[in-house]
Design goal:
Elements: H1 3-32, H2 41-50, E1 55-56, H3 57-64, H4 68-80, E2 84-89, E3 92-100, H5 102-126, H6 129-146
Antiparallel strand pairs: 1-3, 2-3
């Protein structure tokens, strides 16, 4: 390997490591800013997935990369807490669609709003307009990671 190839590999490894740490830290900060109702990360992940639209338990299990039994337990807890509802799929009565309840939608939207308000205030207070533009440029580059 040439020296420049090693440098590129080292910079990619460093960027990957730093980005992973930053994303973890930001995720914790978002969680601190909003009421979690003592839900587990997997329960919050399911609510987040349901915020994008109705789906089936098996589709959730596939997307979350867990066994259907694990999702069934998670959905039971969320249903007991009034955060989700289940109803027959109008296209296939053998299946059930899972959706956020009104309370679940309020809870999820409130969490998202609290996180966005914290981040907006932090960006406004800690960065100049020029620095925020640099962040926007970097986010455009990072968006490619999410498109894989």
């Amino acid at each position: 390997m040439t020296e420049s190839a090693l440098t590129v590999s080292a910079s990619a490894a460093l960027a990957a490591r730093e980005l992973r740490v930053l994303v973890s830290r930001l995720r914790r900060r978002f969680q601190e800013q909003s009421d979690s109702r003592e839900l587990t990360p997997s329960q919050l992940s399911v609510l987040s997935r349901l915020s994008r639209g109705d789906t089936t338990a098996s589709d959730i299990a596939t997307a979350e990369r867990v066994r259907p039994q694990a999702i069934a337990a998670t959905l039971n807890i969320l249903e007991e807490r009034g955060l989700i509802e289940r109803r027959p799929d109008p296209l296939d009565r053998r299946r059930q669609l899972v959706t956020l309840s009104g309370e679940g939608r309020e809870f999820f939207d409130g969490r998202r709003r609290a996180g966005e308000e914290w981040l907006t205030t932090s960006l406004q207070d800690r960065y100049t307009e020029a620095e925020r533009q640099v962040l926007l440029d970097a986010l455009a580059l990072l968006e490619r990671l999410g498109q894989e």
